[in-house]
Amino acid sequence: MDLLSRVKQLAAEAAADTVALRQHLHMHPELSFEEHETVAFVTEQLQKLGLQTQAIAGTGVVAVIEGRNPSGSRTVALRADMDALPIAEQNEVPYKSRKPGVMHACGHDVHTASLLGAARILVALKDEFEGSVKLMFQPGEERLPGGASLMIAEGVLENPKPASVLGQHVFPMLPAGKVGLRPGRYMASTDELYLTVRGKGGHGAMPEQNVDPVLVAAHIIVAAQQIVSRRANPKLPSVLSFGKVLAQGATNVIPNEVYMEGTFRTLNEEWRNEAHAHLRRLCEGLAESMGASCELEIRRGYPYLENEPALTARTQQAAQEYLGPENVVELDQWMAAEDFAYFSQAASACFYRLGTAAADGSGRLTSSVHTPTFDVDPHALEVGPGLLAWLTLRELAEK
Question: In which band, very low, low, confident or very high, does the pLDDT at 1 lie, cut at 50, 70 and 90?
Answer without folding.
Answer: confident
